[in-house]
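Please fill in the sequence for the structure shown.

STRUCTURE ENCODING:
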């Protein structure tokens, strides 16, 4: 009887683990789309980020990265929507002041890429947020070229 209980517990545990894996944010295809945007403009891939809002439980996802003065960066975004609707990106400087954003307030448009020529070497913060979307999974890639 104990063996049956043990086998039943193992099956339940296996089901729980499998169920969690399916529900997770898989950004592999999103990352590939982001990398493809770098090639036509001759940017070199630097880093990729997973943007997981945990099914809407998290409003912002933030990472830090050191940008170098004189380099031009291209930050690309993808969330499964062709126009990246609902996915906002804001680059903040060391003092956490906004430098550039993928969302344009005047036209209420979401851009899938942001280009920036770095004026000062330092730690910058990449903040991702969602706006009126049910797509809480995405990716972002940083590309760089030196001038």
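FILLED IN BY: designer on duty
SEQUENCE:
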């Amino acid at each position: 009887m104990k063996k049956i209980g043990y086998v039943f517990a193992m099956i339940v545990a296996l089901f729980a683990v499998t169920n969690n894996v399916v529900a997770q944010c898989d950004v592999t295809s999103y990352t590939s789309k982001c990398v493809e945007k770098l090639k036509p403009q001759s940017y070199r891939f630097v880093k990729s980020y997973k943007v997981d809002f945990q099914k809407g439980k998290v409003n912002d996802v933030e990472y830090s990265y050191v940008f170098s003065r004189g380099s031009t960066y291209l930050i690309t975004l993808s969330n499964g929507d062709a126009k990246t609707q609902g996915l906002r990106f804001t680059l903040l400087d060391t003092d956490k002041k906004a430098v550039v954003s993928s969302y344009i307030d005047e036209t209420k448009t979401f851009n899938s890429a942001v280009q920036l020529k770095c004026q000062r070497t330092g730690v910058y913060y990449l903040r991702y947020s969602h706006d009126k979307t049910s797509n809480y999974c995405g990716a972002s890639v940083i590309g760089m070229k030196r001038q």
